[in-house]
Amino acid sequence: MIRDLILLAAIGGVLLLIVRSPFVGLLAWLWVTLMNPHQEVYGFLRGAQLNLIIAVLTIGAWAISNERKRIPANAFTVFVVLFALWACVSTYFALDPEHATPLLERNLKTIVLVVAVTILATTRLRLQAVIWVMVISIGYYAVKGGGFVLLTGGGGHVYGPPNSMIADNNSMGLALVVAFPLMDYLRMTSARPIVHWPLLGLMALTMVAILGTFSRGALIASAASGAVYASRSRHAVMLALAAAVLAVALPSILPATWFERMSTIQTYNEDSSFQSRVSAWRTSYNIAIARPLTGGGFAAVEQTWIAKAFPSPGSLNHGRAAHSVYFEVLGDTGFVGLGIYLAALAAAGVNTFRILTIVRGRPELDWAAKLARMIQVSMVGFLSGGAALSMAYYDGGVVIFALTAALLDAVRQPAPIANPGGASVPRWKHAYLAATAARVPWRPRE
């Protein structure tokens, strides 16, 4: 009950601030969505739809505020909106609309959150705030899980909050992998030791928590994102040393069962868990082949009668999660939906390279270059780890991709020109003053 009262007081105070600033609402929305604090209490607020209340109030405050009302003109946002529209069409023609509709509503909320990030995260300060909220939200479970592993010697798996998208140990592992590069970005851009060293400690606990999930997918995602990090960072040697120290310490941190489970990666063709995933992929593919335009609707493959209706050698004979970002979208929305989804991810990747091109040779935007590189690392972790997990619509992963559109829009903004008095010039005068400053006064020849 005490936890509920503390959470109620926190939410009540935030709601008052949202009326004055919709961006505060966005931060609160992200916090509740990613951390799921209502799943960490045991009383009257457990399972409450706090994110819906905050989302509605945030959108209302934004509608009457002076915040910009346009979505950034970016290929990512275009494809995200198109995917939302196609998801509605797919749900209308779903094999079981009653089963698919609640999932559509949940995923549309995620898309609205994504669009809100691209609209409201317009400056470096706001982008930093978004990243801090994301790191704190997932970092809570990193500290909790990493501490649990160290205290118990890996005696149990690390899980996420119940009744959430990261409740499963595999999903929790991927969420930690995706958040890790953002922690490092904050570390690199924080000069104060009081911030720098706690972030290093958080990163260490995150690595321990990832291992403590006993997730083979998270281990593969960590290796893939680590390789990209080494190629995108100046601290590759430091990363290699940290990995070596961790490898030496593993036997004292984790039990033998962890090593036995990880060793099955080499014999995946003999592993029953992996083979069941392949069966789910085949069933999802069968659904898409039979219904190439719309697929079967959200989570169709999880229903036994649908799995039995689309058989093939080695496919499922009962309902099961798709266990793959790509096959999940394919079975849910068909080849058209998968094409739009992949186009959105590709557009986000292109955004990061465009950002790096724009900021090249501009020291004042070095922070943006670091953020773009760390986002690339997070994206690789999501795309590689998600190959064997049903995480296509995970809020934290999708928001990472949305940050590329917001960051690109931020670095495109013209730098303010200061007048002699030190006050910044209004944006509408910027182009005129820049052109005037570039003129060379005419002088008669001597």
Helix content: 55-70%
Low-pLDDT ranges = 417-446
- Taken together, the total number of domains comes to 2
Category by helix and strand content = mainly alpha
What spatial form do the alpha-carbon principal axes imply? globular
Overall pLDDT confidence: 86
Count of individual beta strands:
0
Q: Give the termini separation.
A: 88 Å
User: How many helical stretches?
Assistant: 17
Order of helices and strands: HHHHHHHHHHHHHHHHH
Major beta sheet, specifics? none
Query: Percent of residues in beta strands?
Result: under 5%
CA radius of gyration is 24 Å
Commentary on this structure:
The protein is mostly helical. The chain folds into two domains: 1-67, no CATH class; 74-412, no CATH class. It is built from 17 helices and no strands. It has helices at 2-20, 22-35, 50-64, 75-92, 97-120, 124-152, 169-188, 193-212, 216-232, 236-253, 256-263, 272-290, 304-309, 325-359, 366-385, 395-412, 430-438. Helix 7 packs antiparallel against helix 8 and helix 7 packs parallel to helix 9. The longest helix is centred in the last third of the chain and has 35 residues, at 325-359. The chain is globular and about 60 Å long.
Question: What's this entry about, in short?
Answer:
The chain is mainly α and 446 residues long. 69% of the residues lie in helices and 0% in strands.
What is the topology?
Layout: H1 2-20, H2 22-35, H3 50-64, H4 75-92, H5 97-120, H6 124-152, H7 169-188, H8 193-212, H9 216-232, H10 236-253, H11 256-263, H12 272-290, H13 304-309, H14 325-359, H15 366-385, H16 395-412, H17 430-438
Helix pairs in contact: 1-2, 1-3, 2-3, 2-5, 2-6, 4-5, 4-14, 5-16, 6-7, 6-8, 7-8, 7-9, 7-15, 9-10, 9-15, 12-14, 14-15, 14-16, 15-16
